[in-house]
Amino acid sequence: MRMSxxxxxxxxxxxxxxxxxxxKGRGNIDTGIGFFNHMLNLFARHGLFxxxxxxxxxxxxxxxxxxxxIGIVLGEAFKDALGDKKGxxxxxxxxxxxxxxxxxxxxxxxxxxxLSFDVNITxxxxxxxxxxxxxxxFRAFVNNSRITLHIKMINSGNTHxxxxxxxxxxxxxxxxxTAIDERIKGVMSTKGVI
Length: 194
Fold this sequence. Notes:
- By secondary structure, the protein is α+β, with helices and mostly antiparallel strands.
- The protein has helices at about 35-45, 65-80, 135-145, 160-180, and strands spanning about 5-10, 15-20, 25-30, 50-55, 90-100, 100-110, 115-120, 125, 130, 150-155.
- Helix 1 runs parallel beside helix 4 (about 160-180) and helix 2 (about 65-80) runs parallel beside helix 3.
- About 40% of the residues are buried.
- The mean pLDDT is about 95.
């Protein structure tokens, strides 16, 4: 089983997380930010990951520490659960429509952290969620999972729909890239390591 359990406590957040990459898409998520709970539940469901996540953060300041720190812990959990990465497909690209919106998420489980975030979000808030923190979440995830991730919004529209398209696509792309292919011996690299 490709699983990971993480705990991280700082002066700003207290996070506990359990991840099963080979799950059924079950999310039990409490971040203290309703819209972010919704996005992470979509991510787990569409990626078919089981994700238990509890975060107590300094939301009296704002959501930044909570969202960034969850990205850190979730990225670490994926990196640990993948272990030596033997047999994984490594790459994935996924188009995801959400009504009028269309996103493209492309990733490489490369061992090299890089984020390209080509999304123009003009609305500042969706519910209790600060939309500029979408990019901060993905940057934290990328830096701690050590993946290359490109996110591009092809057709924009309603801000909720845009962000939902991205999180669904991210789950679907991670599911595809972490899938085991029995034809792959070792890792998908001529270097022998990723």
